[in-house]
Amino acid sequence: MLTKRIIPCLDIKDGRTVKGVNFVQLRDAGDPVELAKAYSDEGADELVFLDITATVDKRKTLAELVTKVAKAINIPFTVGGGISTVEDVKVLLNAGADKISINSSAVKNPGVIDEMAREFGSQCIVVAIDTRDVDGTDYVHTHGGRKPTLLQTQAWAKEVADRGAGEILLTSMDHDGTKAGFANEITSEISSALSIPVIASGGAGNMAHFKDVFTFGKADAALAASIFHFKEVPIPELKSYLDQEGIVIRK
């Protein structure tokens, strides 16, 4: 059985870590390099770094900051934000990223998933899907959740997997920052339908929520931000709890 992964997320704006609710109302959460090192030392399995305004502001992810973070940690590291070309991926992998995450650029040009997977291997390519329920149907949103699309989430998830994505980072915008629990239903639907790992994101508020998303949600990994940033749930305690609950996790 594959072990489940715990992944802190650093949402970066203007070189600082921030966290909001439903993708807005951002507040400062600290220095990304210091946070990254702390999470690595505490036993996080991986780290995700998202430059949340890179696509909106039409600029590239801060490669210099990526290098600093990569030097501070010894765990796999995924970087996203404003990535749209093979050259962008090369810059970030050379800066120290292990994987890259694309969202808006994949929706705009789905062929870029195939291109990146061919060039770097599927294991390097994570497609982030920001989903929101609109009148009972889940739709993909882009540009940091600001732009709705006509793509239905489940169909898009299948397409990105077919095109060569190695992993999906599924964020429920309805649950993001609410601390009311992950979106287990859609996470389970997508996890059950696909052969690639699904990282659940959005809504973590306590340790039981992680157990639920690994069991009911069938997620391969669970990502959270504010509960880790503000020391509400320490990673060592979370791992100990999951182990006691029979969830197979990385030690």
Q: How would you characterize the overall build of this protein?
A:
The protein is an alpha/beta fold and 251 residues long. It has one domain (5-244): TIM Barrel (Alpha-Beta Barrel). It has ten helices and twelve strands. The chain has an eight-stranded parallel beta barrel with strand order 1-4-5-6-7-10-11-12, surrounded by six helices. β1 and β2 form a beta hairpin. α1 packs parallel to α2 (63-72). The radius of gyration is 16 Å and the shape is globular. Mean pLDDT is 89; it is low at 20-25.
Short summary:
The protein has 251 residues and is α/β, with parallel strands linked by helices. The chain is built from 10 helices and 12 strands.
Write the layout of secondary structure elements.
Layout: E1 5-13, E2 16-21, E3 24-30, H1 32-42, E4 47-51, H2 63-72, E5 77-80, H3 86-95, E6 99-102, H4 104-108, H5 111-120, E7 125-134, E8 137-142, E9 147-152, H6 153-163, E10 167-172, H7 184-193, E11 198-201, H8 207-215, E12 221-224, H9 226-229, H10 235-244
Parallel strand pairs: 1-4, 1-12, 4-5, 5-6, 6-7, 7-10, 10-11, 11-12
Antiparallel strand pairs: 1-2, 2-3, 7-8, 8-9
Helix pairs in contact: 1-2
